[in-house]
């Protein structure tokens, strides 16, 4: 559906559609029209014009999320377009803003905010080439270093050295761009563009490198910390991290798989867990916590009870929670504030049905996202699930892939789901009757694709028809067999794959060496 454009926006499109004309005329443009022209240029992917607009930016701030968001002149939000042409032009324009001594506008720019851009699976830009978070980190670091070198070598206008612009960015660091980002952060004091890391994600890094760069990134500014794939952070390292570094503004924390493993806990480990809980309690802004694929049986209360601020997002998928853990969550002050909850990998109907529904009841007035993948939800549980979800009128997203539900049960569930007024995204399982008889759950990766694809397509069509009959074209229903889209993994999957092969090879070599010694 086409979004209406004001006459102002249509005029802006006409102005920027000719890059040469726009360049010549820019000096005559009123400074308050720059945001309008920028959005029009971004929509039309006019890289040259974007570059020139940023190079001559006359305002105090440049907030990419706001500039591309819904405006009076054009309601469509373009912040999910990570168009490579546009973003590269934007960042090189920023570098040239520093170097341009002939701009007709006074240099007033103090803050550039690049954090509002959203990485999504489907891109609508014409070039179809995206610049993800990793590539943005790489390019900004490279441009900052180029600036430092240029300012050291060239005869620059003295006023250039007075420029100081805070560039707010979500950094994404892996082994491949580590050296470049470290160098850029080390030379921050010499560079007019000051990298300010608001969110930090780390994949494929040794612990030594992770500890070094996280200190360089200035943890006092950090609002989000994600330590995800192939960073071997265990509980003792987490305790050291929290003891040695203060995170006063941290709102969101994601820890890697197997950070905790209570199966091999000693008295020292229990004390360590207590200390970590207390340190998290000192993070007064912390409202989002992801600890998936750790073994936390019976220890949820010890970790979460010191928190002084209620959690809005909790991911404890595949954490082997027991009844005491679920009872704590259901009765804790967090329950009434949870907007996103992931309990995947727990046999909810078998282990703690009533406690889970109590938790759902307490969070129902605010819950926006619920993930119950591989939870052994069967046909006999659907009516109870509907009862539990009925009060969740603000639910935007419901993911329940990997549950042994029949086509009939899914149709029954969808007839209910279409009545949830704010629902936008549903991820549902391949129906059980599409798989061969005798399939066991959870289904292993080798068997997950071995189903009757024709029958599945037919069922999926019926489910979408149920939504369409209720005029719910706004709801996207899909079956991601290997998990939801992860923009970061998608962007660095080659490096991630190479790292996994290397790790496997090292493990194999150690095993062979041990075997040879025994022989």
From TrEMBL:
Keyword Repeat: yes
Keyword Nuclease: no
GO CC annotations, alphabetized: cytoplasm
Keywords linked to the UniProt accession: Leucine-rich repeat, Repeat
Family: Belongs to the PRAME family. LRRC14 subfamily.
Protein name: Leucine-rich repeat-containing protein 14B
Organism expressing this protein natively: Mionectes macconnelli
Gene transcribed to yield this protein: Lrrc14b
């Amino acid at each position: 559906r086409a979004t209406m454009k004001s006459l102002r926006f249509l005029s802006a499109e006409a102005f920027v559609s000719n890059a040469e004309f726009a360049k010549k005329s820019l000096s005559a443009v009123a400074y308050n029209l720059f945001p309008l022209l920028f959005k029009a240029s971004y929509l039309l992917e006019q890289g040259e014009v974007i570059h020139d607009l940023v190079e001559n930016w006359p305002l105090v701030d440049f907030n990419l999320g706001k500039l591309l968001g819904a405006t009076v002149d054009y309601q469509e939000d373009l912040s999910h377009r990570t168009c490579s042409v546009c973003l590269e032009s934007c960042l090189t324009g920023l570098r040239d803003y520093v170097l341009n001594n002939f701009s007709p506008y006074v240099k007033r720019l103090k803050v550039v905010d690049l954090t509002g851009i959203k990485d999504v699976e489907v891109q609508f830009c014409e070039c179809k080439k995206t610049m993800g978070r990793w590539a943005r980190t790489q390019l900004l670091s490279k441009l900052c270093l180029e600036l430092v070198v240029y300012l050291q070598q060239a005869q620059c206008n003295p006023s250039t050295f007075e420029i100081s612009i805070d560039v707010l960015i979500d950094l994404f660091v892996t082994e491949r761009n580590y050296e470049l980002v470290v160098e850029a952060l080390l030379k921050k004091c010499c560079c007019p563009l000051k990298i300010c890391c608001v969110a930090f994600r780390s994949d494929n890094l040794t612990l030594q490198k992770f500890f070094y760069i996280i200190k360089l990134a200035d943890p006092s500014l950090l609002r989000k910390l994600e330590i995800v794939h192939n960073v071997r952070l265990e509980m003792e390292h987490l305790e050291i991290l929290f003891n040695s570094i203060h995170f006063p503004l941290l709102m969101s924390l994601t820890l890697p798989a197997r950070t905790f493993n209570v199966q091999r806990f000693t008295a020292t480990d229990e004390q360590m867990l207590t200390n970590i809980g207390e340190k998290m309690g000192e993070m007064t802004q912390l409202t989002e916590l992801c600890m998936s694929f750790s073994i936390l049986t019976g220890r949820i209360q010890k970790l979460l009870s010191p928190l002084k601020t209620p959690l809005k997002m909790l991911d404890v998928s595949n954490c082997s929670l027991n009844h005491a853990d679920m009872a704590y969550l259901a009765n804790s002050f967090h329950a009434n504030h949870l907007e996103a909850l992931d309990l995947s990998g727990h046999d909810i109907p078998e282990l703690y049905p009533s406690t889970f529904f109590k938790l759902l009841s307490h969070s129902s007035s605010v819950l926006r996202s619920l993930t119950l993948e591989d939870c052994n939800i069967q046909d006999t549980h659907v009516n109870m699930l509907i009862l539990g979800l009925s009060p969740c009128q603000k639910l935007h997203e419901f993911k329940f892939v990997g549950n042994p539900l029949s086509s009939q049960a899914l149709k029954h569930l969808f007839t209910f789901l279409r009545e949830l007024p704010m629902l936008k995204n549903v991820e549902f399982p391949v129906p059980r009757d599409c798989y061969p008889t005798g399939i066991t759950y959870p289904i292993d990766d080798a068997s997950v694709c071995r189903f009757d694809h024709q029958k599945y397509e037919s069922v999926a069509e019926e489910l979408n028809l149920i939504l369409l009959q209720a005029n719910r074209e706004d709801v996207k229903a899909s079956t991601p067999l290997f998990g939801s889209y992860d923009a970061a993994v998608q962007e660095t999957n080659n490096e991630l794959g190479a790292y996994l092969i290397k790790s496997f090879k090292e493990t194999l070599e150690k095993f062979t060496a041990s075997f040879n010694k025994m022989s």
